[in-house]
Amino acid sequence: MKNFRVTVNGNTYDVTVEEIGTTTSSQSNLVPASAPVISQTPQVVSTGSEGNIKVKAPMPGTVVDIKVSVGDKIEANSVVLVLEAMKMENEIVTPSAGTIASVNVSKGTSVNTDDVLITISE
């Protein structure tokens, strides 16, 4: 048994840890976990004859910044908003050029996967 003093967020804790076994070789059997890969490309659905494009949330998260407003003309691959998911800020981009037709969220809004964030008219 080993005793440790650990401080987490300003709170100090005394903990006792039992050592189960030791490794005698110079190599460890531990394999580092790879970070999850998160697609930052939003799902895009064309609404048909109107030519509008819906930019949907690729993951659940919170809107931390909106870079555009209705009527703005944008280029393809322009950042339209920033979505925080799992403590990471993800830039959501538009797949094509056009004009912002609607912004369906506001700063601080929590969104789910496939929620429509912004619509674009080509």
Keyword list:
122 residues; mainly beta; five-stranded antiparallel sheet
SSE blueprint and pairings:
Elements (H helix, E strand, L loop, with lengths): L1 E7 L2 E7 L26 E3 L5 E5 L4 E6 L6 E2 L4 E7 L2 E6 L4 E6 L6 E2 L4 E6 L1
Antiparallel strand pairs: 1-2, 3-4, 4-11, 5-7, 5-10, 6-9, 7-8, 9-11
- What amount of the residues lies in strands? over 45%
**Helix coverage percent of residues?**
under 10%
Q: C-alpha Rg, in Å?
A: 23 Å
Question: What's the total helix number?
Answer: 0
Q: Provide the structure class.
A: mainly beta
Determine and state the CATH class of one domain: Mainly Beta
Name the shape in a single word: elongated
> Low-confidence segments, ≥5 residues, pLDDT <50?
34-51
* Helix and strand sequence: EEEEEEEEEEE
Instruction: Give the CA-CA distance, first to last residue.
Output: 67 Å
Identify the CATH homologous superfamily of one domain: RNA polymerase II/Efflux pump adaptor protein, barrel-sandwich hybrid domain
Q: What is the fold-level CATH name, i.e. the topology of one domain?
A: OB fold (Dihydrolipoamide Acetyltransferase, E2P)
Q: Main sheet, how many strands, which sense, barrel?
A: 5 strands, antiparallel
Mean pLDDT: 78
Architecture (CATH level 2) name of one domain: Beta Barrel
Got a strand count?
11
